[in-house]
Amino acid sequence: MSTPSSALPASAPTSASTSASAEIGVIGGSGFYSFLDDITEIEIDTPYGPPSDPIAVGELGGRRVAFVPRHGRDHRFPPHRIPYRANLWALRALGVRQVLAPSAVGSLTPDYGPGTIVVPDQLVDRTSARPQTFYDEAAAVHVSFSDPYCPVGRHTALVSAKAAGWPPVDGGTLVVIEGPRFSTRAESRWFADQGWTLVGMTGHPEAVLARELALCYTPLCLVTDLDAGIEEGEGVTMSEVLRVFTENIGRLRPLVADIVSHLPTDRACPCPTVLDGMKLPIDLP
Ligand SMILES: CSC[C@H]1O[C@H](OP(=O)(O)O)[C@H](O)[C@@H]1O
Ligand SMILES: Nc1ncnc2[nH]cnc12
């Protein structure tokens, strides 16, 4: 059930006690277009335009959660057109400080076949035409990004997946391509030869934008296919990705819910302090 949409301006103050606030954000990917029951839909504007969809806010496992499908609920935004900045800004404006990001990925090794859950620990940016910073005027801000993901969020995801009987792969490198096309076999083989593990289209700039807002960000990658250079055959197709994702969504949703319920209430990771001592040219929501 959903209550009527509330409208908030970009910088609306939020409080932990309102139905328009949340502490944890979930950004759903391909095939993951809804998550919560009993939601309030929040129409929220940001300096970067509206997010991919109104944000669905509700309660889950005793936690206030905000959900946004990154491609929109009708998958109208291709990966290079997703309003990444608006999505992250809107989540932070609602009070979110920890973000969980499920996505469908291709595997660059036959060791991790379709249905494997991977919590990568590194990222390679092969995108080419996406705004990837909030700090592009007035003063330079350089955030540390050597370890792109929240260590506590990663640990929580790994523990939950193990407990769910879905043994996860701990670590690996996600290469993010510009898309929307899939990789050629030569590109795919080259990625694998570099020792990279997974390939996707949305992990960048989502992770770095979260870092620039001092948010915790945890990727949860579901392998939907072996990428074109890894497997002989026709190569990856969108329908294959969506089919395999749909086959797994029934166990992915409860896993995401379990991770949400186990994320810490106090952040003891380095993420909250990444902007300390920096002179920010913009006010964060
Ligand atoms: C649906 S085929 C390719 C599409 O799937 C992945 O989406 P997401 O990361 O949002 O789960 C991939 O990155 C592409 O956007
Ligand atoms: N093989 C692949 N390449 C890029 N993005 C993907 N998302 C799911 N599978 C993918």
UniProtKB/TrEMBL annotation:
Gene Ontology biological process terms, A to Z: L-methionine salvage from methylthioadenosine; purine ribonucleoside salvage
Superkingdom of origin: Bacteria
Site (Important for substrate specificity): 183, 238
Any one annotated GO CC term: cytosol
Any single Pfam family the record assigns to this protein: PNP_UDP_1
Family: Belongs to the PNP/MTAP phosphorylase family. MTAP subfamily.
Subunit structure: Homohexamer. Dimer of a homotrimer.
Record's function text: Catalyzes the reversible phosphorylation of S-methyl-5'-thioadenosine (MTA) to adenine and 5-methylthioribose-1-phosphate. Involved in the breakdown of MTA, a major by-product of polyamine biosynthesis. Responsible for the first step in the methionine salvage pathway after MTA has been generated from S-adenosylmethionine. Has broad substrate specificity with 6-aminopurine nucleosides as preferred substrates.
Full protein name: S-methyl-5'-thioadenosine phosphorylase
Taxonomic lineage from the root: Bacteria, Bacillati, Actinomycetota, Actinomycetes, Streptosporangiales
Gene responsible for this protein: mtnP
